[in-house]
Specification:
Elements: E1 12-14, H1 22-26, E2 37-42, H2 49-52, E3 61-65, H3 73-86, E4 93-98, H4 100-112, E5 124-125, E6 135-139, E7 153-155, E8 160-164, E9 172-175, H5 185-203, H6 210-228, H7 233-252, H8 258-270, H9 274-282, H10 290-302, H11 317-328, H12 331-338, H13 342-345, H14 348-357
Parallel strand pairs: 1-9, 2-3, 2-4, 4-6, 5-8, 6-9
Antiparallel strand pairs: 7-8
Helix pairs in contact: 3-4, 5-6, 5-7, 5-9, 6-7, 8-9, 8-11, 11-14
This protein binds fe (ii) ion.
Fe (ii) ion binds at residues 144, 194, 198, 260, 274.
Length: 358
Amino acid sequence: MKYRNFPMVPRVVFGHGSFLQLGEILMPKRKSSEAPFIFFIDDVFEGQPLITEVPLLFNDQIIFISSEEEPKTAQVDVLVAKIKESFTEMPSGIVGIGGGTLLDVAKAVAIMLTNPGSAAEYQGWDLVKKPAIYHVGIPTISGTGAEVSRTTVLMGPEKKLGINSDHTPFDQVLLDPKLTHGVPKEQWFYTGMDCYIHCIESLNGTYLNAFSQSYGEKALDLCHEVYLGDISKEESRDKLMMASWHGGMSIAYSQVGIAHAMSYGLSYLLGVKHGIGNCLVFQYLEEFYPEGVKVFKQMQEKHQIKLPTGICAGLSEEQFDIMIQVSFGLVPLWENALGDNWKEIMTYDRLLQLFKKI
Ligand SMILES: [Fe+2]
């Protein structure tokens, strides 16, 4: 048995209003007045008070990015080319401010500034050769675990797959629950359920070990408190932020499972966003995760979340086939969920029937 030697985020700040410390944190990382910090910020914050608190100096730049769609390899390539054209020196660092999309774009650009070619060439496991430039992640919505993960999930020309590498994790994360104030209810639910599903898939997987279990159980408890408990909004924001962190840590040393494998298929073919895609799938997985799905439905009920229906209605056989191929391509997820003989358990037809329910 060869055990994996994982990198972790080496520095993290947690606290209400900690965003105001960002300038102080970045200062020692500034290489020169010509080497800017590039801030990728979710465009929902354009014109919002948060922008005035971004610690811009010298030729630092803010680039607003839409999180309407999942991040793409081509988008990363364009951003990298733009940065290289605009500045004579390599930036001092990249700061991603937003949800999973923004965090993933920040990680990918930081990697691609030092590695040649297109981001698509690095989708997979351990293909990145050179360390990324300094990069900082600041989540403004909780649940994806992108702030701790060693991957950056991108939609490529051929596949939706992460750049999984030791160079991917952030050098610094800033967790300020205050930044999650304005998140709309649906998004809060779908993204939080990403975390909840990380826990269920990790805790019920064959890859489970004491490391993953300890984080997964804590994250699951926190999700129960946030989505079923009776706690204040402020406490809930703090707890969901820590649930996301622990859920991410849990899957770092195990793996996700069926909902994620299928959600990747949905997202690849139809552009369904990760959080809602997971929910759309997970509601039909009671045979695999009975307790998890039961509690999920209680949470959905409590917050009166109605999931869209008929997403896969009217798809052609070819289209179902694409989703199934993308989904089956994620072998470690299936192995974790169902064990070595997963192919016998999850046949093509069984998966097709599941997709048809959505
Ligand atoms: Fe996820």
